[in-house]
Amino acid sequence: MNTKQVVWLRNDLRIKDNPAVFYASQNGLVEVIISVTPEQWIHHQESPAKLGLRADLIKLVTAQFADLGIQVTLVEADHFADLPDKIVAFCQSVSAHDLWFNQETPLDERRRDNDVSVLCEQNSIQTHAQSIDLIVAKPVFSQQGTPFKVFTPFYKRWLQILSTQDRAPLPAPEKQGEAIAVIDFDPTWRGPYREDLWPVDGEATKRRLWQFCHHKESFYDEQRDIPSLPGTSTLSPYLSLGAIGPRELLFAIEYTCDQAGRDWRGSIWLKELAWRDFYRQLLLHFDTLNMSKPFKPETDRITWNNPEVGFQAWCDGNTGFPIVDAAMRQLAQTGWMHNRLRMITASFLTKLLFIDWRIGEAYFMNTLIDGEFAANNGGWQWSASTGCDAAPYFRVFNPTRQSERFDPSGDFIRRFVPELRSLDNKAIHNPSDTQRLELNYPTPIIDYKSARQHAISAFAQLTSKPALN
Fold first, then answer.
1. Domain of 406?
2. Letter string b/e over residues 154-193, b meaning 16 or more CB atoms within 10 A of that residue's CB
3. Domain for residue 12, yes or no?
4. For the chain, which terminus, N or C, has the lower number of CB atoms within 10 Å?
């Protein structure tokens, strides 16, 4: 049991509920490596905020391992392609013949892991690829053995599998020696982020999870679409980098539902977490999603508008539609956006400004602290009606109606568009021309009705055009 086991961490920066860490610790003494690939992260459009959070989470998990007497080494490379040689060299330097890691779903990451595994095998190092970091890690297939393309039947089958599998989170490894010194780590690639909103300490994510489950989970369905209320968990930045494991979330749901006498399978928050699994599993089954291609290939024939017209106003929160502007300013100021607002702003860009969804997808990834490829891609393709289980092409969110429905008192708008604070609860959703002039707030950059009709007509014409060869 004293054989050296090397654990390779990437987007799973935690010691608990970590299959690679736990199972490696059952087979010998653990030594951890964390790969640092800043150029690759930038190529994958990770935002400065996410890079900053990543850096601090690396420091945190390194200290946690050090308390257990487990050494952490950073393996630095510019790109994924540079990792195989470095990882094999490290394993050889510590006389380790076993490498453990948790699988990931994006295509580039799968290719990286395959290249590392091949080189390890050539050098007599055995790789132990653990399950993908999902609540239901095994592929969720239909009775015909095919992947689901629609969420609802996926979710039903997902729940069936989940009900029969072991759902308990794995414990942290036991101490394997005296505490050791923590490595010095102050990377140049670390970006700024709102540390007041996203604290990094040993209890931050755990505290946020349990406070949400104890006080908000039962009201989640009622409050999740109201951006002025703190009705969501705000755990997504930690989940995107693996600072908390999906089975820990599941355990918290089960526990609190049991305490309240409710069936955990009926949790709406659990259903939202199933969307995370759904989008990640799609990447495994449809490689073109990893290549900036729409799930519906015919939608690649759409001629989108020039992004120079309206895109910068959308980015800056100056479209003249208060709820859109409030949402985009929230993103700029916090690095995060409420999910209902992500749908509203994405629909505005793709259906009303009629700008290519890939441009919005990239902007979100470059700005969000919780940017995660599968969910971001899935959300944008849903909004643009180009994706799997997408919104019907004729569904175009009316931003004013959405504002009146989900921010009826204008509280959220007042928070992020302060120039409109003085308006009453009706006018704040669509100020008059006079009010806009007096308050120095822009007129709408598009006419909703004509923009909506243009989008519907463009999608409808796809069925009359010949298919591409």
1. 297-464
2. bbeebbeebeeeeeebbebbeebeeeeeeeebebebbbeb
3. yes
4. C
pLDDT band with cut points at 50, 70 and 90 for residue 148 = very high
Nearest to 363, CA basis, from 332, 403, 323: 332
Same domain, 304 and 364: yes
Among 224, 336, 237, 212, smallest CA distance to 271 is for: 224
Give the residue numbers marked as catalytic.
272, 275, 304, 339, 357, 380
pTM: predicted TM-score of the whole model, two decimal places: 0.95
| Burial of residue 347 (number of CB atoms within 10 Å: 0-12, 13-18, 19+) | buried
Say if 381 falls within a structural domain: yes
Neighbours of 91 (CB within 10 A): 23
Provide the edge-to-edge strand list for the sheet that holds 4-9.
72-76, 29-36, 4-9, 98-102, 126-130
User: What is the CATH classification number for the domain harbouring 460?
Assistant: 1.10.579.10
Task: Let me know if residue 188 belongs to a domain.
Answer: no
- The whole-number pLDDT of residue 469 equals 38
Q: What is the pLDDT of residues 152-176, one digit of tens each?
A: 999 999 999 999 999 999 999 999 9
Q: How many domains does the chain have?
A: 3
Percent of the chain beyond pLDDT 70?
Answer: 99
Among residues 228, 257, 285, which one ends one of the domains? Answer: 285
Whether 335 maps to a domain, the answer reads: yes
115, 107 Cβ separation under 8 angstroms: no
Mind listing the pLDDT tens digit for each residue in 94-116? Answer: 999 999 999 999 999 999 999 99
> Helix, strand or coil for residue 131?
coil
- Domain end marker among 224, 254, 285: 285
Local confidence band at 184 (pLDDT 50, 70, 90 cut-offs): confident
Whole-number Å distance between alpha carbons of 143 and 55: 43
Residues 220 and 73 in one domain: no
Q: Contact, 358 vs 294, CB < 8 A?
A: no
Whole-number Cα distances in Å, 133 to 137, 284, 439: 7, 13, 49
Q: Does residue 301 sit in the same domain as residue 279? A: no
CATH number at residue 61: 3.40.50.620
Nearest to 168 by CA among 270, 386, 17, 340: 17
